[in-house]
Design a protein that fits this description.
The complex is a heterodimer of chains A (71) and B (150). Chain A is built from 5 helices and 2 strands. Chain A is of the alpha+beta class. Chain B has 150 residues and is mainly α. Chain B is built from 4 helices and no strands. Classes of the chains: A alpha+beta (71), B mainly alpha (150).
C-alpha cells in the first residue's frame, strides 16, 4: 500500500480570491505567514481546526481545499 | 523567517556566547590566542548584548501584539518537540552523572584515593555544561524543524 499525503489548493484559491497574499490569509486564519507558506509547500500538515478555518476563509467546502491522496 | 525562528537563532547564539565566556573564565584561553584575550572577551560581550537586545525586542513585540500572530500551532508543535529532545538529553545526562557519582564513590572508598571526576567542583562544571547543552539542543531542534519543515 502506497503512502498517502495531504495536498492542498491554497495557492490557486488565493489567486482566485483577488490575489490574496499569504499574509492576508494568515491574518484571517489566525496564524503566521510562515505557517501558511509551510502548508502551501506541503512542509506542514495543519490541525483539523486550522484546515477548516482556511476553508472557511475561502468559503469553499473542505475537500476543495485539502485532499488526502496517494503519492 | 518567523519571530520564533529568529528567537531560536538568538537563543542559540546567546547560549553559545555565555557558554564560551564561562569556559574561558574556568579553563582559560589556549596559549596560541592568549594575547587576544581582551578582543575575544569584548567580542563575546558584544554578541551577548546583541542577542539579548534581539530577544528583548521580540518579547516587546509579542507583548504589544504588533505585526500579527506571534505564536501559532506550528510554533507550539516545534517548541514541544524541542523541549522533548532537550528533556531526553537532560535525563540521560543526569542519570549518567548519578551512576558516575555512585561508581566513583565506590572506587574511591575501595582505593582510598579521590578520583578527579568525583571532585565537587568538577561535577559542578559538568552539570553547568549539561544544562547549557540542553538549551543548545532545544534551540537547535527548533531551527532544524523550522528549516526542514514538520
Amino acid at each position: 500500500m502506497g503512502e498517502f499525503q495531504i495536498e492542498n489548493n491554497i495557492r490557486v484559491l488565493r489567486f482566485q480570491n483577488g490575489e490574496m497574499t499569504q499574509d492576508e490569509l494568515a491574518q484571517k486564519a489566525g496564524v503566521t505567514r510562515q505557517t501558511i507558506n509551510a502548508i502551501e509547500a506541503a512542509k506542514y500538515s495543519p490541525s483539523l481546526e486550522l484546515a477548516f478555518k482556511i476553508a472557511k476563509v475561502f468559503d469553499e467546502p473542505f475537500e476543495n481545499v485539502f485532499q488526502y491522496t496517494k503519492e | 523567517m518567523s519571530r520564533k525562528e529568529i528567537y531560536a537563532w538568538s537563543s542559540l547564539v546567546l547560549t553559545l556566547a555565555i557558554l564560551g565566556y564561562y569556559l574561558i573564565s574556568v579553563f582559560g584561553l589556549p596559549a596560541e590566542v592568549e594575547n587576544y584575550s581582551e578582543q575575544i572577551t569584548a567580542l563575546i560581550w558584544k554578541v551577548i548584548g546583541i542577542a539579548f537586545l534581539v530577544q528583548l525586542v521580540l518579547d516587546l513585540l509579542d507583548s504589544t501584539k504588533i505585526g500579527g500572530v506571534a505564536k501559532d500551532e506550528r510554533d507550539k508543535l516545534i517548541e514541544s518537540k524541542a523541549f522533548r529532545n532537550a528533556y531526553y538529553f537532560l535525563m540521560v545526562a543526569v542519570i549518567t552523572l548519578i551512576v558516575n557519582v555512585l561508581i566513583t564513590d565506590a572506587v574511591s572508598q575501595a582505593s582510598g584515593e579521590k578520583l578527579f571526576l568525583a571532585l565537587p567542583f568538577m561535577m559542578f562544571h559538568i552539570l553547568v555544561f549539561v544544562l547549557f547543552t540542553a538549551i543548545l539542543i532545544k534551540s537547535g531542534t527548533q531551527i532544524f524543524y523550522y528549516q526542514r519543515g514538520i
